[in-house]
Specification:
By secondary structure, the protein is an alpha+beta fold. It has one domain: Penicillin V Acylase, Chain A (4-Layer Sandwich), CATH 3.60.60. The protein has an eight-stranded antiparallel beta sheet with strand order 3-4-5-6-7-8-9-11, sandwiched between helices. Strand 5 and strand 6 form a beta hairpin. Helix 4 packs across helix 5. The longest helix is centred in the N-terminal third of the chain and has 20 residues. The N terminus is likely disordered.
Amino acid sequence: MTLSHRLFFLSAVLCAYSISHAARPAAAVACFAIVAGRKTTADGSVLVGHNEQNLAPCLISFDRVPRQPIETAIAEKYRYRGGGQRPPETAAYLWSQCIAKDAADSFLNEYGVAVVSDKCPSREDEIDVLVERGEIRDGGVGYLLRRLVAQQATTAREGVLIAGELIERFGYTGTGRTYVIADPNEAWLMAIVRGRRWVAQRVPDDAVVVLPNVYIIREVDLSDTANFLASPDLIDYAVGRGWYDPATDGAFDFRRVYRDPFKPGEPIKNEQAGKPVGVASGNGKSGEIAPGDGTPGDGSAHSDPPDPRRWWAHQLVTSRTIAWPPAAPLPLCIEPSRPMTVAMMAEMLRDRGGLKPLSADTTVEAAVMQLRADMPREIGCVYWRITCEPSSSG
């Protein structure tokens, strides 16, 4: 039995279990991603780890979709118009989908382009308002976006450009989201706001990034197109809406400008307040949760609390103690204490420690995509996964 057959068999066996397991009392909907640049990993691969979490029980379908003629697979309006001559067929791809959920799919295509995502609430208006203003056109694009990237992208950067073109053409219908689009050479974070604004930042090769359900891209250098890409009016639009004033607000900070100010971070249950929390490194003093919800600030629309899962994951990666709440904003990029591996990422995805677990009863799939450039894509790019909450599997 080949590896691909074993994976499909494992997926089928665990589907029934995942339904009953996900039916246990749910803590929250909170997807989570980890991205490791190729210079931080033991084998030189780009690694992408992801927990897919949903409130309601769902059936996971894991399929291999073969190449298809572009004319029949993708409506003409959704075809990428950049990049010169396009292939006559779509890419073949692995597709994990949570049946009946419209934002819970992950992909890995034959070129080694991986796509996962986490919901990130934005401050943009509701859909009907944007439709009236012409910001969302011809039905917009939402759930279909990641599949269109998997079908058409040959590199991660091209995937960002494809998604950006479609967002600017139609408008994004979801409240907001950050996509991880990666290939064997590099990974990008792409933060999208409802409507036609987006920004993408390349993950440095020598860095690890952890992504919860909040925007984490902050200051951007739009003149550095090797590391940043964005919609052309990203800053001007924010100025026009009164969300950003260059004269008084300093450098443009995407997170502060575009996040939903009334949903600035993930809540921590009040019954946890004041209880000691063991640090991830195990060699320092335990932190304590501040009274109330455990976040600094006055709870107003202008507070910008830290994210508890990101705080915990930074400690797991760096093996360093970070007090709660952190004295300063957590950095986007961190350096791991040792080379990252598939096994290390899997261990993080099943972690149940901290103020808010990286994995929860709501997890319906955990996956690590191992993207190696020194092998043929057929064997160098592997989609490791489990259907159900990962700590239930040894």
